[in-house]
Amino acid sequence: MRISNFHARKILLLAAILCSVGILAAMSFAAISQYPLFLTGSVQPNVMILLDNSGSMNTIMEHRDYSPGTVYSGSFRGGEIYFNRIDYSKSGNPYYLVSRDTGHTVDGNNQNQYTVNGRSITLPFPYVDTRWNGNYLNWLFFHATAAQYGSLATDASIRVTRIQTARSVISDVVKNVSGVRFGLFKLNNSQGGSKVKDCGALTPTTVDAAVDGINAETWTPLGETLSEIWQYFRGGDSLYNSGTYTTPITNGCQKNYTIIVTDGEPTYDNCYQGPFASYGCPKDPYDKENENAPSHLADVAKDMHDGNASPFSGRVQNVSTYTIGLTLDSALLDQTAVNGGGKYFTTTSGISLATAVQNALADIVSKMAAGSSVAVNTPFLNSNSTLYRARFKSPDWNGYLEAFKLDAATGAIIGYPNSPEWEAGSRLNSRSSARAIYTAGVDGGTYKRLEYSTANGTKLAGAGFMNFSSAKASDLIGYIRGDRYGTTNPAGYRNRTSKLGDIISSSPVVYGPPDGVYTDAAYKAFKRDWATRTSLILAGANDGMLHAFDAATGDEAWAFIPNILLSKLKLLRNDPYTHTSYVNGAITVADAYIQTKNADGTTAGTAGWRSIAVCGLRDGGKGYFALDITDSANPIPLWELTATSSATPNGLGYSFGTPLILKLRDEAATSGFRWVAALANGYEGPTSSKAASLIIADLATGAVINEIVVDKSAFSGVSPNGLASPAAIDRDMDGFADTLYAGDLKGNMWRFDVSSAKMAQWKADCIFSAGVTQPITAAPDVVVRLGYQYVFFGTGKYLDEGDKTTSFTQSFYGVKDDNSTKNLTQADLVGQTITEVTYSGAVYRTLSSFTVGSKDGWYLDLPGKGERVIAEPEATGTNDAGKVKFTTFIPSTDPCEPGGKGWRMQVNMETGGEPKKSVFVVPGRPDGTVPVGDSSRRPSGMLLSSGTVAPPGGTNDLDIIQKIDTGLEPKQDESGTHQFGLRSWRQLLSI
After folding, report:
1. What are the tens digits of pLDDT across the range 709-762?
2. In sequence order, what are the beta bridge partners of 633?
3. Domains recognised in the chain with CATH numbers
4. Predicted TM-score of the model (pTM)
C-alpha cells in the first residue's frame, strides 16, 4: 500500500450517515434523480390544445370492434343512390339509402332507424347529429354480428360522442399531468379559432368548465386556427378576433407545443401567406363547393417549427405541433406533425385517444427534460500525458470518449477540440466484427460468466437474468448489443443513433501493466508476467455496460453487464425514452493477493496476485460488482453485492460511493491478512431505518465479513442517512489500512478504526458534527501528523431536485483528530473570513490569516447563495508550506443555463487562511497578488463562470477547467508541489 510519510493515500466513496440529530426536516431528502440534475430546468413547457368542435364531433363513437384500416364491402343494388356518408338526426331531413323513384323522401316515423336488407339498427339514445363514413356503415350493416350492432343501444361506452370523449380525455390529462402549462383553443363558427384558456390557465380546477362550454357546431378551419395559435405564441395581432395577444412565453428556454385533436381534415380553410405556403388557394374557400379545398395546415406547422416566437433577445423559441386523428387516418395530419417537429397519432376509441394524448405528452416531457441537444462534458482522466474526456449529448443520450495528448511543457491540449487521437463511440459504430459482451449470473448453482448474445437468449430470458419474454429475448439482446445499428429496429423500439450510451458520472479509469511498489517475490513475478499487458480505459455508461477500450486505439475490447441491471435493460428500448441510469458509478482498480476463479465459476488454482476492478452503480442501482481483469482480454466476474444480500442487515441503497480496495489484518486468515472491498451502504436502502453503515466485503468472494452501522438514531427512518465516500490511511506505515474517515448526510464526520486483527474490536467514533443542514457527500482528504490526523472536507449535497434551490450556508473544514472520543463542533475551530475582489476582469477571493492556536482546526463559511462542496479536496505540500485544494459549486438559478458556477480554492493547510505563497497567476502582477484597498494580498480563490474543474496536479500544478458546454481550459498555478506526481481529481460538478 503506497502511503506517503506525511499524507495518507485515499480512495473515495459517496453515500452518507449520522452522529447527531437536529432539525430533521431542514434538509431535502427526496428521491434520487435519474436525470442529470444540471440538465433538468424548472421552466414548465407551454402546451396549447386545439380541440376540434366541428359538427362532426357530435358523431357517436364508432364501435370498438370496428377496424378503420380494413376496407369493408357493402351490398349494392342497381337503380339506387349511395352516399359516401350517412347523417343521422333526431329531426330534420337525414340522408338515407333510397330508390330513385321515391323522390328521396324518408318516413318521418322511422327517423331514428335505418333498415336495409332486413337489418334494423336502433341508434344510441339520446339522438344527436351523427356522421359515419361508408366504410363503417358497411361494417355495421353487413359485417357486424348481432351482438356487436345490438350493443349500440345498450353499451354506455359506445353511446358517447366524439366531443364528449375528447372533453373527458382532456379533463383527465390536465388533472393528472403536472409540470405543464396547458391552454385551450377551439374553432370559431366561421373563420379561424379563438382562445378559451391561456397557457397556464387550464388547470385542474378550470378544465371541466372550459371543455364543457365547447359545443360541436362549427366548420373545420384547422389551418386558420393554427395560424391564430401561432399569432398567440408570437404575441401578435389576432387574425380572426379582436385585440393583440400576450405571448405565453415567460422564459428564454421555455418549450412550446400545440396538440391538435380532430376527427377530420380541414374544411373551409382560407389561404396561408406565410413563408412556407405551398398549396393552391380556392377563390372562395367558404363556398360550399370548396368544403374540402387543399389546406395550408402543414404549412403553418412548418412555419411555427422553423420560426421564432421568442420575446427574448438572442433566443430562438419555436412551437412544435402534434396531431391526433380521432377515428381518422390522415396523410395531411401526418405531414403536419412531420413539418411541426412532433408526432402523429391515430385513434379509434376513447381509450386509444387517452393513450395518444398521453404519448404525445410523454414525448414532450422527454424532450423538455432532456434539454435541447445539449452536449455535456462529464468525467475525464489524465494519464501519462494523455487526457481522456467523456461527454454525452441529449436528447439522444449518445456517449463519447475522446483521447487528447497534453503538451508536457505548457499543458496545452493537443488537437482540442476537433482532432482527438481517437473517439471510442465512432469507432464502435463503424466496427464490423462481433463485440465481446458478457454478463453473469447463477447458472447450475454457480455464479459464472455468460456471453450476452442471442445464442443464449433462452437462458438470458429467465427470471435470474432479464426476466423477459423468451419469444422476444433475441430482439432485445440484439438491440442492446447494437447488432441492428443502422438498420430497422423491432417494432416499437427506440431508434438508437450510437452504440455507446451516455457516460455521465462514471469517471474513466486506465489500467495497464502492473506498477505497484510491493517488494515480495510473488508480486515481482506478477509484474514480469504481465509487463506487456494491453492498457485499457474502463468507463461505465448508461447503456447498461461497463466498457473496456484499448487506450491506444479507442477500440472496445469487451463490455460487461452486471446481473443486477439485466431486468431493466428493456427500458432502453422505450419510445419515447425517459433517461435511466445504469453503470453510472465509480470504478476502482487495484492489485491484490487473492484466490480467484475461472469464467465458469470454478476455482482457479492457488491464491496469487491479481488485478481487480470493483464498481458501483450510483443512481443506476443498489449494488456493487467485481471483476478479475488481470487478463485484459478475459474479464472474470467475481461477485455482485446487492440490496437483497442477507449478510448486510442495514441493506445496500444506491451505490454512490467509490469502492476502496484495502489490505486488513485478520487473525482468522492463515496469512494473517485479508484483502477487502470497503463499501458505503448508499442512499435509499431497503430497510425501514434508512441508517448508514460501512460494509466490509471479502474481495475474492463478495461475502460481507462486517457491517459497521453508525446511524442508530430513532429518527433515521424519517430523516434517511447514508455514508459518503471514505478515505483510508495507514498511520504506522506497515502496509495495512488501519483507519477510515467518511461523512454522512447529517453533517457528521466518522472515524472507523479497523486496525485490530479481531473484527469484534472494529469501531466507529464521530469526530465532528456540522449539523443536519450541512450534509457531507464527498470523501475527505487526510494528512497524518505526529499524534493526530488533519481531516479536510466540505459540506453540501446535489442529489435530488430539492438540492438545486437549497440555500443553507455550507462550509469547508480542517479538523484535527487526536484519536480520542471527543465530538467536535464548529465552536471548537477558528473561523477564517472571505473577501471577494475584482481585478483585471476576474473575480478573486482573499482570506484572513487568524492563527489556530489551541483550537482543534479551522473552517470557512462559504458566502455564495447555494454554494457547496460536492467533490473531495486534495492536500498537498507539508506543514506550513502545505495547502488544501478544493472546489465549490453553485447551481444555476436560471433554468435556461445548465450547470452552474463555482470557485477554485487553495488555502493554507495549517490555518485555512491565506496561503504562504502565491497560488494563482494574476495578469500583470508578477508577484501573484491582487490589490485590496491600500495593500496587496495573495488570492486564495478564483471564480469559475461555468462548468467543472478537475486538477490532476503534478509538478506544474495544472488544473483542467471543464465547462458544462464541453469546453476544456488548462489553468496553471503559480507555485506548489504535489507529493504523488500525477493524480486525477474528480470534477467539481459531481454529476
Report:
1. 987 664 455 678 889 999 999 988 888 999 999 999 999 999 999 999 999 999
2. none
3. 46-55+161-370 (3.40.50.410), 63-150 (no CATH), 829-991 (no CATH)
4. 0.74
